[in-house]
Amino acid sequence: MILELHTHTDHSRGKKIYYDAISRPEDMVKATKKVADGIFITDHDKISGAIEAQKYAKKYGVNVFLGEEISCSSGDIVALGIQELIKPGMDVEDTMDAIHAQGGVGIAAHPFDIRRAGTGAECVKCDVVEIFNAMNLDRHSNNKAKKFARDNNMPVVAGSDAHWTEMLGYGQIEVKSNDLDGILKEIKKGQAKIVKNDYIPINTIMNMSLGKLRKSYDPTMEYIHKNYGFPKKQIARSLLSIVTKEKRGLGGFYKFLALVAFGSVILYGQARRIV
What we know:
By secondary structure, the protein is an alpha/beta fold. The chain has two domains: 2-200, TIM Barrel; 203-274, no CATH class. 40% of the residues lie in helices and 18% in strands. It has ten helices and nine strands. It has a nine-stranded mixed sheet.
């Protein structure tokens, strides 16, 4: 069975942008049919999207499993095979205890990413390490995770970290089992095979990011209005309008900013490799 382990729906919320992902649960399940046999929905600190997605499993012939990307105090941990929401903000040990109490498996998500949203060296306390995250365009982050897992003899997986249907199919594993218990055992024992480790194209990530801004336009404008003063309010509202006003494709201004940002990330990764 080919599986997507790390995915998000529009139930995920961002820290600065209201919507952290743009596809509905049904759309994610439908799109999975083209690239995999099963999917774990792992929204940020929510399981409502995963529960909704399970309603469409039979309709599209896809295995849909509950998961959650938990924001623990040291970084993100993906929980697979849970039944109830696990609260964010706990340390790694307590988060892992909560996952195990539900019979789940805890994966250190993008542990060394340059945004410092991962657990870093504390990933050794997790069951499994995500050594390939399709969103880590700097490459160095994944290479460091791979080396850490090898040095500590830890089981490994890959994840697409899909925030949009177009981002599915880039980081996947294969298991022999068809049931949840069997899948979790294979993953925890290091028997899962990484079968896809391709980086998501920059243009796809840019379109997803623009989609998040457009989907979050109203709550973002409201936040700006309530929390920003002059001239920050005027500048922020103008910039948001510029990047979201075009209904198709990427606005020129937004594309320029995005390319500069992604270019910096890639250069950073290359510099770290040299060092």
